[in-house]
């Protein structure tokens, strides 16, 4: 018994001779997760963005950052007020959001189905994976001239480009997530009579859910890049169209405003996916080091 206590104490880095009498059991240290207080966590998350904002404000107001290099926060707020008062900002954001949502829906849906098919079936992998890997290696921006020749510069071109951008990471992560599912779990489900689509929907995809959520996060981020590229051509509304106007008329304040809007959209998307991850996979936070 004494040897066992000595071995256990060595694991946690404590000496039993000084703290626990020989032959007595002691309560091991708590190995759970100690959550930081919400106020402290929020302050840490905001510290770097706030510091960057203060540095930007100080550089613009002191003249150390010339306005033609980077417009100050005051001018950006004035541009925001100008666009908001005319209603253009709302129209542009809604137009971009509609294009992005439709493209992500098509691209992520296709990537999810193809990734699951390639991961679940050897035949599916042989038919799909090589083609998708070659497509993933081609930058989606290289497809812009080809898509213009096929679809013109209308809405179909924009949605198709966003869909192609979003499909690649979704396919890759879903494929890897499905292939990482424990084979014993699949065999046990088959023992209960699950086969085909029922096995995929009820067992495999829920087991691969962390990879699917990570794929969704990356796909949504990449779709913003596709949205910017799509709205540079043939658009009459949208945030990308506003960037084009700002470039033509040398409105540096509008350019910075559009960058901040894209950053805010990316932040909102990331927060939404993080919230979904906490609800769907609550066990994943237990490995976090505090």
TrEMBL record:
Entries under InterPro entries matching the protein: MetI-like, MetI-like_sf
Keyword tags: Cell membrane, Membrane, Transmembrane, Transmembrane helix, Transport
Main location: membrane
Subcellular location: Cell membrane
A Pfam family annotated for this UniProt entry: BPD_transp_1
Keyword GTP-binding listed: no
One biological process term in Gene Ontology: transmembrane transport
Source organism, top-level taxon: Bacteria
GO cellular component, one term: plasma membrane
ABC transmembrane type-1 domain segment(s): 89-273
Membrane topology: Multi-pass membrane protein
Family: Belongs to the binding-protein-dependent transport system permease family.
Protein name according to UniProt: ABC transporter permease
Species in which this protein is naturally found: Actinomadura spongiicola
